[in-house]
Design a protein that fits this description.
With about 375 residues, the protein is of the alpha/beta class. The chain is built from 14 helices and 13 strands.
């Protein structure tokens, strides 16, 4: 590859008729962040979003109107590309083989815990999201929190090196969303007297991020001091509200029985933070870095979490609801006395993952060079 002429890169995305919002899932945001970062690399001539979806029109709710994005089908631009990054839409083995035979390189960009999701797909007979079909690729790129469970999984199945690259994020979608916060809301943590409103944002779509432990943390704290908690909004649970196990779980808690905890739908995070939230309680299993965390810290909201990789917020050990309750009660009692320290730590944390950060641009630049030299 002639880097002096500049690389033209195709990044696959799935533009679908059901893609109604940039907040529908974090993956959409991640691919846009990668697109923007790649455009900052000096020897990258152009990045084209290669559409593998069922629509050719991007919804206005994706909030991409102000970006000079070129969206095309693969057959329209294949001869222009030096590198294909398989992101939001999978490439079949035949396409990959033909592209590599012409001298192109193919990278698989993995931003989810596919080992867990593949297990769930097989065991619970769900529709497959991605499949191994024997395609030979040049590299897998992934993020630090997926390496422990997935690195060997991809190395063996894809028969290629796995590169662990920095997690990347941008405040762009939060900034665009808070412009339209409904009346009465204000994005950014505001100290206040009295009881606090707690929100749980886990998506409840698979086992890596569910409502269970955040609810347990809030329940354990409420039992010890019910005078400090006004409400617990358990968002992203509307779709499971009729499930008997979920109902029994919630009704077995004091916060459920007394109406402190409520079942909520899915919302744009920035709006829910601005309108209804003082504190966020989170829990994950082998999914230690999430856009949610950085969105929350960007607003300087107290974030109580179990991620050892996150250098911000308030940490408690995984699967220890009592320890989480200790942290929550301490935050309820003392957070407002430590706002400057917390704000400084939050700003440093979100800056470290920003797509503008030189270390992140360099890491992806180096990864591109390694792929081109193979």
């Amino acid at each position: 590859m002639d880097l002096e002429k500049g690389l033209t890169i195709g990044l696959t995305v799935f533009v679908g008729s059901a893609n109604t919002s940039i907040w529908a899932n974090g993956a959409i945001q991640n691919f846009i962040f990668l697109y923007l970062l790649l455009n900052k690399i000096p020897f990258v001539k152009e990045v084209i979003l290669v559409n593998g979806g069922d629509s050719d029109v991007m919804s206005n709710a994706l909030m991409l109107d102000d970006l000079p994005i070129r969206l095309a089908r693969l057959h329209e631009v294949e001869d222009q590309l030096d590198l294909l990054i398989e992101g939001g839409a999978q490439l079949d083995w035949h396409t990959v083989a033909n592209f590599r035979a012409k001298g192109g390189r193919v990278v698989n960009y993995q931003i989810g815990n596919s080992f867990v999701m593949d297990m769930e797909t097989t065991l619970f007979k769900r529709d497959p999201m991605r499949v191994f079909d024997g395609a030979v690729i040049d590299a897998v790129w992934t993020l630090p929190h997926h390496a422990p469970t997935c690195r060997s999984y991809w190395e063996v199945m894809h028969r290629c090196p796995v590169e662990v690259l920095p997690y990347i994020w941008s405040p762009m979608f939060v900034d665009k969303t808070i412009i339209n916060v409904p009346q009465g809301g204000q994005f950014g943590y505001q100290p206040s007297e009295g009881k606090k409103r707690i929100t749980i944002f886990e998506p409840n779509l698979n086992v890596v991020k569910s409502y269970h432990y955040p609810v347990l943390v809030c329940e354990a704290a409420y039992r010890r001091d019910p005078t400090r908690i006004k409400s617990v909004f358990v968002t992203n649970t509307e779709h499971i509200k009729t499930d008997v196990t979920f109902q029994n779980f919630m009704c077995s808690t004091d916060i459920g029985q007394k109406g402190i905890a409520t079942i909520e739908n899915r919302f744009p995070i920035a709006h829910f933070l601005a309108l209804h939230t003082d504190i966020v309680v989170a829990h994950q299993w082998e999914n230690q870095l999430n856009n949610l965390y950085f969105d929350v810290l960007y607003g300087n909201y107290p974030l109580i979490h179990n991620s050892e990789m996150l250098k911000g917020g308030y940490y408690y050990p995984s699967f220890d609801a009592l320890a989480g309750a200790d942290v929550l009660l301490d935050v309820l009692a003392h957070h407002d006395q430590n706002l400057d320290t917390y704000r400084a730590a939050s700003e440093q944390c979100v800056a470290s993952v920003n797509i503008e950060h030189p270390d992140n641009i360099k890491a992806y630049t180096d990864a591109l060079l390694r792929v081109c030299q193979r």
